């Protein structure tokens, strides 16, 4: 799973017209894509106002002025179609200034890092001051919209007159009304005021949780330095301590000597590298315990967040925050989600237990002792087992994936599947945030330009450390003759620069690039009437499906051979090497799937019903780990205090598993036989990607695969069919039980 930014604004005080219906990313709205082709300077993303800090105020002013005109128009109760059109335009006008000036405050340090990295040339002291002023203005305006009964009444009118609307507009009216009510606008004045207070507190707690993670990453000191593998030295800070040693030339005197060691900062990325590569078990143990015991302050923050979200949900009329969060998803209720997770847990348990025993036996074989398998052993021994079984050398694999060839692979994929081509577009002065940025347009020979893609793929100091897809501009119909094209950006952190041939990706990074590209295609190929449903703005438990599907393309030899070339010889990647990569990927797939189920169970339990005498979060995590995995919990650790998905994915983490099941079924039923055919791509585009969130998800999925076998109705909600994933993972016994159960049901 890539470190894509998920549902970043969930639970915050955002007006319904701006609310993000997708799990994928922060969305930034733009008004037009106006690159100057004569070389004249422009502002960021082509916005003329964003040439200087003071332009921020005018940028916000114009958005508010136009939105105020639209609010007055809507409150005059025009036709239902005009209400929906105008509401969508307000969202279009306000989203980009809201994101630019509010995102730093609303979404915590990780998203702050993203935006600071994007706007490095602009972030002078004056720019920050102007952004803060704009933030205060726009937040006041958003509160006005959030509590505007005239807008709410107009939306209800549009919903009541739904027979006069297109199906997409009917859906928009329903979603807008529902989102207004999630903000409590239909409640009495006292209750509405309380809802606003709670939403503000939730925002502050989320911000505090993220700040604590950024400030307290934990560290361990390791002596001597030889205990740390050389290739990890770059991740560690050299430190020294005094020791007593014998003076040279004398057998009786001693002197102070400096012993070198390393300090390991246990941030998630460094911790992962240490756990995988450090042969010294004590080093791994120290790093694991420290990295899973910080920040301690978040124990209290998380308790408060759970309590405040529960109180919010109950005021709105829900039994739990999970019920509150899931109503518009396919699952529709916590009961449906829990049933699905328990089914998944049962499906994978036997194979995960076998994998656990295999890892434990391997450790005992290597150590020559009958020792227990510890949590800090998993990454180290599984990496060793994969390398031993498949004779894989990560540097050899990476030699076939120079980044320019991987970009070429994305172009080939789009050409084969959709008959479209990417063309490079020159950037105007001031349009991009760094010299590494590339810009391309997606062009179709019959349809013209489909959208624009910015690529910011190389690591640099101060840049957001993960990978993400940003929908800068959503697709929407402006008039009968005008259509607003989508603009998206992919942000990654691969070593090297575009002026160098040194950037070579390991296979996990290739998968990540294709994952993010799946999100980008969802946005670029969107052709919705409303930007409210554009691209990745879909039901939370559908949003990760395209990205998961395109990971399959990154693993299929028929795809890889079209672009994977050795960086020096030009040799096409050998099929046997790809088979080894595939085998290594599947080797502990059940363990990884079980881990994701465990995470989802934690999420559902913490935000589910709260019985009297609610236990602390660490007790919940300990019990669930014991019940649903073979791995022991380490006393005193509290991994959940760094589980940031509890903030922005509260009660929604199960969506990753929905997407995994959907993608497995789509791959097997539609793509596997001929993954690069235009027929396959046309089906993906016309039946799925172009609709964004404008159609019912289950209808789209069934239509895509030609009938049943991808979703099931259960207890008033929708769950994925798990048969394809079970088949892919070799869970034969489970599939047989599943088929027997279906036969018994029919009898």
From TrEMBL:
| Entry's cofactor comment | Binds 1 zinc ion.
Signal peptide location: none
* Top-rank taxon: Eukaryota
- Compartment(s): Mitochondrion
Instruction: Tell whether Transmembrane is among the UniProt keywords.
Output: no
Q: Which SUPFAM superfamilies does the record associate with it?
A: Metalloproteases ('zincins'), catalytic domain
Q: Which UniProt keywords apply?
A: Hydrolase, Metal-binding, Metalloprotease, Mitochondrion, Protease, Transit peptide, Zinc
Keyword hit for Lyase:
no
Give the Peptidase M3A/M3B catalytic domain ranges: 276-704
Needed cofactors, names only, are: Zn(2+)
**Major location category of this protein:** mitochondrion
Q: Belongs to which family?
A: Belongs to the peptidase M3 family.
User: What name appears for this protein in its UniProt entry?
Assistant: Mitochondrial intermediate peptidase, mitochondrial isoform X1
């Amino acid at each position: 799973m890539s470190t894509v930014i998920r549902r970043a604004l969930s639970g915050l005080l955002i007006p319904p017209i701006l609310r993000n219906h997708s799990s994928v990313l922060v969305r930034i709205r733009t008004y037009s894509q106006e690159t100057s082709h004569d070389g004249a300077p422009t502002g960021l993303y082509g916005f003329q106002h964003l040439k200087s800090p003071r332009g921020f105020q005018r940028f916000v002013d114009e958005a508010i002025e136009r939105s105020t005109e639209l609010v007055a128009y809507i409150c005059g109760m025009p036709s239902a179609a005009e209400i929906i059109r105008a509401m969508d335009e307000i969202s279009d006008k306000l989203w980009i200034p809201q994101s630019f000036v509010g995102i730093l405050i609303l979404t915590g340090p990780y998203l702050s890092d993203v935006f600071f990295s994007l706007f490095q040339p602009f972030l002078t002291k004056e720019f920050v001051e102007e952004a803060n002023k704009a933030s205060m203005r726009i937040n006041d305006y958003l509160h006005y919209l959030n509590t505007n009964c005239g807008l709410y009444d107009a939306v209800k009118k549009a919903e009541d007159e739904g027979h006069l609307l297109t199906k997409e507009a009917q859906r928009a009216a329903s979603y807008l009304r529902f989102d207004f009510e999630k903000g409590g606008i239909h409640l009495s004045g006292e209750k509405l005021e309380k809802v606003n207070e709670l939403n503000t507190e939730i925002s502050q707690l989320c911000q505090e949780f993220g700040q604590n993670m950024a400030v307290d990453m934990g560290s361990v000191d390791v002596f001597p330095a030889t205990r740390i593998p050389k290739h990890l030295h770059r991740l560690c800070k050299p430190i020294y301590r005094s020791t007593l040693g014998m003076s040279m030339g004398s057998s009786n005197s001693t002197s102070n000597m400096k012993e070198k060691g390393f300090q390991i900062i246990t941030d998630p990325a460094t911790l992962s590298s240490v756990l995988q590569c450090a042969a010294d078990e004590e080093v791994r143990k120290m790093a694991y315990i420290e990295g899973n015991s910080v920040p301690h302050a978040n124990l209290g923050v998380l308790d408060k967040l759970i309590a405040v979200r529960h109180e919010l949900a109950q005021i709105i009329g829900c039994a739990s925050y999970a019920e509150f969060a899931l109503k518009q998803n396919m699952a529709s209720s916590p009961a449906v989600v829990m049933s699905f997770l328990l089914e998944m847990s049962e499906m994978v348990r036997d194979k995960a237990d076998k994998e656990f025993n295999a890892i434990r036996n391997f450790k005992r074989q290597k150590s020559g002792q009958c020792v227990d398998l510890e949590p800090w052993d998993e990454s180290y021994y599984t990496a060793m087992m994969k390398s031993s079984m498949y004779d894989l050398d990560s540097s050899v694999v990476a030699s076939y994936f120079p980044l320019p060839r991987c970009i070429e692979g994305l172009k080939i994929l789009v050409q084969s599947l959709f008959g479209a081509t990417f063309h490079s577009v020159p950037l105007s002065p001031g349009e991009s945030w760094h010299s590494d940025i590339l810009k391309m347009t997606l062009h179709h020979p019959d349809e013209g330009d489909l959208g624009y893609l910015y690529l910011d793929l190389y690591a640099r100091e101060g840049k957001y450390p993960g990978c993400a897809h940003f929908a800068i501009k959503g697709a929407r119909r402006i008039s009968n003759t005008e259509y607003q094209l989508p603009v998206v950006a992919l942000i990654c952190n691969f070593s090297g620069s575009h002026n160098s041939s040194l950037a070579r990706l390991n296979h996990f990074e290739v998968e990540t690039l294709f994952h993010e590209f799946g999100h980008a295609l969802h946005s670029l190929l969107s052709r919705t009437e409303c930007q409210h449903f554009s691209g990745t703005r879909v039901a939370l438990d559908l949003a990760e499906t395209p990205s998961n599907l395109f990971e399959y393309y990154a693993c299929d030899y028929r795809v890889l051979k079209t672009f994977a070339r050795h960086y020096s010889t030009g040799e096409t990647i050998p099929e046997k090497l790809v088979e080894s990569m595939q085998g290594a990927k599947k080797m502990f797939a059940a363990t990884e799937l079980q881990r994701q189920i465990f995470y989802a169970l934690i999420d559902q339990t913490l935000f589910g019903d709260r019985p009297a005498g609610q236990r602390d979060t660490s007790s919940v995590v300990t019990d669930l780990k014991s019940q649903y995995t073979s791995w022991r919990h380490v006393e005193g650790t509290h991994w959940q205090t760094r589980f940031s998905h509890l903030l922005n994915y509260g009660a929604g983490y199960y969506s990753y598993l929905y997407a995994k099941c959907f993608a497995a079924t789509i791959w097997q039923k539609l793509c596997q036989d001929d993954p690069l055919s235009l027929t396959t791509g046309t089906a993906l585009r016309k039946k799925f990607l172009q609709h964004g969130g404008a159609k019912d998800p289950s209808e789209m999925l069934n239509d895509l695969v030609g009938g049943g076998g991808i979703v099931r109705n259960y207890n008033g909600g929708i769950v994925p069919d798990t048969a394809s994933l079970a088949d892919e993972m070799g869970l034969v016994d489970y599939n047989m039980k599943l088929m027997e159960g279906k036969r018994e049901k029919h009898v």
